[in-house]
Design goal:
CATH superfamily: TolB, C-terminal domain
Oligomer: single chain
CATH class: Mainly Beta
Order of helices and strands: EEEEEEEEEEEEEEEEEEEEEEEEEE
Distance between the termini: 24 Å
Strand content: over 45%
Number of domains: 1
């Protein structure tokens, strides 16, 4: 059974006078005691996500620069869950690359991330765990790739160059058209030209994402097959979605609850999670299980990970 992992991360804006003791823990979905597999080695913060492509887990360590959106340093690393070997995929300790933290993803033996190069240009880099080779993906001239996700030989990313508001955005909120890069052919195609895509996810041959339009317009959740085709808007909801290929789940920030959408029967179902208040602070869809953690203020000052078995939900 697949493992799940999480960082014991500090607040994003941390008291930098206090020592950082962040770590990454992992446990089998079958149960057992969690174990620490990585620690902050440079005095920085560890943060989500922590994607796993067996036997590797990818994580980031960084230190925020005061109250700004830039960093003093960042390190993108991978740890071998069997041997404990740590591989540094990329880092920045000076220069233009500190102006944005990389967004990253890992699956099927590869990791992919966005970063700013020495000239401040946005690029996508990929690491192959089998060959130990890092490459820069040959994207079309003028593209500004952010928020990549990978599945097999396909990399989906947001092209911020198409967003008319890009000059007023920092790296945390970049949107744009949704593109797909084919690793085998080197070709880039468009999945959705609408320049509102933000934070896509892939599973089971399906791409889902949160669409954030111009101000005073409603956000929505969208989906399209990874191979391309008709873009479906699931509805006007506010929340970053995840999918396992047959259902889409997100935490609706307005309704303060989880919603699940069946991709086959096009049915939306509110999920009840034992009455927990605003349960969507942190969540992950792993197969048919929806894992979530309640904010400590609502959970007896603890951080407990729970799950809902979605096989019991009729969607």
């Amino acid at each position: 059974m697949q493992d799940i992992a999480w960082p014991t991360d500090s607040q994003p804006i941390a008291n930098q006078m206090e020592p950082i003791t962040d770590s990454v823990e992992i446990v089998s979905q079958a149960g057992g005691e969690p174990r620490v597999v990585a620690r902050a080695e440079h005095g920085g913060n560890l943060d989500s996500p922590v994607p796993i492509t067996e036997p590797w887990l990818v994580y980031i360590e960084y230190q925020q620069h005061d109250q700004s959106s830039s960093a003093d340093f960042w390190y993108l690393d991978a740890v071998n869950l069997t041997s404990g070997e740590v591989v540094e995929l990329a880092n920045a300790t000076a220069g233009a690359a500190l102006n944005a933290l990389p967004r990253y993803s890992a699956a099927d033996g590869r990791a992919v991330w966005d970063q700013l190069d020495a000239n401040g240009a946005a690029v996508l880099r990929m690491y192959d765990f089998a060959t130990r080779i890092t490459t820069t993906l040959p994207l079309p001239a003028g593209a500004y790739p952010v928020n990549p996700v990978i599945s097999g030989d396909q990399v989906v990313f947001v092209d911020n160059s198409t967003d008319p508001s890009r000059a007023n955005e920092d790296w945390l909120g970049r949107r744009g058209s949704l593109r797909r890069f084919d690793i085998r052919t080197g070709q880039t195609t468009t999945l959705d030209a609408d320049p509102t895509a933000f934070m896509a996810q892939i599973a089971g041959g399906q791409v889902v994402w949160f669409a954030v339009p111009q101000l005073q317009s409603q956000e929505s959740v969208k989906t399209v097959p990874l191979t391309g085709g008709k873009v479906r808007m699931i509805g006007y909801y506010q929340g970053i979605p995840e999918t396992n290929g047959s259902i889409v789940v997100w935490s609706d920030a307005q309704q303060h609850r989880f919603l699940a959408f069946g991709l086959k029967d096009n049915r939306l179902v509110p999920l009840e999670v034992a009455g927990w208040p605003d349960p969507g602070n942190e969540f992950a869809l792993c197969g048919d299980r929806l894992y979530f953690a309640i904010a400590p203020a609502f959970d007896g000052s603890t951080s407990t990970i729970r799950y809902v078995d979605l096989t019991a939900v009729s969607i």
